[in-house]
Amino acid sequence: MYQMKCGFTMTLAVIIIMVLSFLFYISKHQVCRYIAPVVSPSENMSELQIQVNTFLDQINKIVPRINDIQKNKSTCARNCKLTIINPKDKYCVGDTLIVQVDMFDYLRKRKSYGGDFLKARISSPELSAAASGKVEDFKNGTYHIHFTLFWEGKIVVSVFLFYPSEGVAALWNARNSWYGYVAYTGKFRKQNKKIETKCGFERDNSKELCEYADHRDEEYFFCVKPWNTSCDSFTEIRGSFTKQSYLTKESRSLFDKTDIRLEIPNAFGNIMVVNCSNNLILNPRCKIGMELQYPSGHFIKNAWYPNGCSIQTYRSTDELNRCMQGKSIYLFGDSTLRQWIYNLQSNVKTLTVFSPYGDGWASQLLGIDLKRNIMVRWKRHTSPFLSGSYQSFREERTIPREIDLIGGHENTVIVLNIGVHFRPHPLHLYIRRIINIQRALKRLFLRSPETKVIIKTEHFGENEKEYEMNSSFHGYVQYLIMEQIFKDLNVGFVNAWDMTNAFNSNIIHPPNTYIQHEVDMLMTYIC
């Protein structure tokens, strides 16, 4: 009898262990490729959700599907080849140079599919000149990179394999399979106490939740409800990386520091470009409504020259004061747009910048010049937003809701950017927010078509240690979506994705010497 009881107990223990192991496995590796966006149970498929799904499907088609990842069969930069299509002894300014890239794996076998993430640029270091190249993927292991030769002189061609297609597939799958890269913590106030609780975009039906819903825009955020505490007492929020990984051991091997962000060998050397025409082309001033281009311009002698239009530089305080007089400038975005307000403060000495609330580095900033009636305001876009420290939740609003509160005027300027804080989250969050911003801008233009709106794209760059959750590839995907959604709006673009690539900046926050070029574009649009 004792042996039967003992055997039954052991069998039961084994079954429990197996069940727990399975539950842990599926929590770490969800069976579906994508997590479903949070939608209220009473809703059918809305027009907005259909749009979100359409963009997800479009991006899914350009990402390679690779199930069996083996490093020796992945793209190896050292074995890839660059050749020039129809090479010439010399090229003229304005010509297009086409460079072919053929991909090979570590076994020196030619790749048969595309999807690699490449960075391409031309430069002349002695002229402090540089420009981006546009990548064309033939989906068979061959790429063409199109370079516009903007200046004369000796030009260096540089093509970097940032991530192999196998790594791209792993990053794409990981991003859209869970919410585990970022942990959100909320603070609730109860009398004189502050209570911390878990928050996020994922609905946990096993717990009592506070739901912060925008039903019109179909945006939802949740916090575990503290016991005997009102959901209205939510005061502060913090978002930070969890340092968890969704990648398998084999997938992580694709991102060894010695094998990524490598330059592909160039056997053809430098390109000589001469000026074949003495005709002086006078480009019109850049204005709102012009098409977003890539490449959108080039640097020469550390000055930015947009493609097809001219930029105006405002350096003296008097020039800037005349330009900005009477204007209300709203900057809604992340810390890369926050750099603008500090740039303006350093150049416009009469602008007093302060934080009205002073509750954390990401609290809103206000710049005032009472004499000239100038107002500049920076406010972070709401979650997803990573700050590391607690930030106020009291005036938390999405950019569409902020736009809805602005009446608009000929002296009203709105600058928008979102991007890097969305990279560690499933892509549907970014798509939905961008579509909602587009809808808010359409409403704004109905009541105030003279309001000037500038879109700043995100910067090319990443933290090398955060390649999984903060990859430039995620930024590239978001750039493609943003381009499609805003292309028909009467807005101005500051193509920071292109500009930082040409500038050869691989960090999220470039130096002020670069930021000045972005601010010059702003002033060109609004002055």
From TrEMBL:
KW Transmembrane helix (keyword) present: yes
Domain of life: Eukaryota
SUPFAM superfamilies membership: E set domains (SSF81296)
Coiled-coil segments on the chain, per record: none
Domain called NXPE C-terminal: residue spans: 304-527
Stretches that traverse the bilayer: 7-26
Keywords: Membrane, Transmembrane, Transmembrane helix
Similarity field: Belongs to the NXPE family.
PANTHER family reported for this sequence: NEUREXOPHILIN AND PC-ESTERASE DOMAIN FAMILY MEMBER 2 (PTHR16165:SF32), NXPE FAMILY MEMBER (PTHR16165)
Protein's name in the database: NXPE C-terminal domain-containing protein
